[in-house]
Amino acid sequence: MKVAILDDIHHAYEGTSGVRRLREHAEVCIFTAPFGEAGALRGFDALVANRERTRFTRDLLERLGDLRVIAQTGNHAQHIDLAAAAERGILVARASGGFSVGAAELAIGLAIALMRQIPASHDAIRRGDWRVPMTRVLHGKTMGIVGVGQVGQHVARLGAAFGMRVVAWSPRLTDARASAVAVQRRSLEALLQESDVVSIHATLTAESRGLIDARRLRLMKRTAYLINTARGPIVDQAALVEALTDRRIAGAGLDVFDEEPLPAAHPLTALPNVILTPHLGWPTDEGYARFSEAACEVLLAYQAGRDVPRFTG
Prior knowledge:
This protein folds into two domains: 2-98 and 284-303, Rossmann fold (3-Layer(aba) Sandwich), CATH 3.40.50.720; 101-276, NAD(P)-binding Rossmann-like Domain (Rossmann fold, 3-Layer(aba) Sandwich), CATH 3.40.50. The protein is of the alpha/beta class. The strands form two sheets. Strands 8-7-6-9-10-11-12 form a seven-stranded parallel sheet, with helices on both faces. The chain is 32% helix and 16% strand. The mean pLDDT is 97. The two termini are 26 Å apart. Helix 1 runs parallel beside helix 11 and helix 4 (101-115) packs across helix 6 (150-161).
């Protein structure tokens, strides 16, 4: 089997245990820059796709005549034309690598950075301004988790470790499930009203798009912070800009946006009560190691003729 690992812009795959194992059974080529024309992938039986960095359109898939399997890392495949893949007999295997510990840790990091005014204090010292603001701690505050999948559950554990009270909402969250993951179940509206930090960890679906809209933002405390390390469109971005501008909420920590990269002149970039990061949640040392292992597992299983988890249309 001949395998291409695509879009390794961080040069993270070389040396991982998954790639070492895969090389014992297959020829592996790692692309650390865009592959350019489809012809560059001629002869590869298998591709490892890094999250959504490459869009697999019908046109591209039709040009990849040798391709038999895509090992898709992460939990999403909206960037792949699954119908076109199925028509061509290309299996789209799920190499999720588990949940993103990095996104969970970043959510807590953004909350701390906002509440303790870390970036602003750093910038002030660099300007020669030794100011000492009074800041807010996580301890004793209420953390509201929107979306109680594995990432949301890990954020809940981290919040509890800081001494926070953790409340949560998810469309299918029951009292029994909430008790099992050590959170208090709330309606979404009640969660927004009582939380000091609201952290978004829902999956982007037709139902969750625009979930946190202008009406729901108005339910939040003026002293509350919104954190989004999930997907940008879950929050109505225009309504959020308005809420932040009018100081209807204290601030926001955002790792995801409607449009990525975020345009340089976007209104969010001019707001002093916002911390912006460039989708840092998933690309971590641990994240790549997990993806490498997961891709290795599914490709070796495919090579051996065993069933593998897959995305279907």
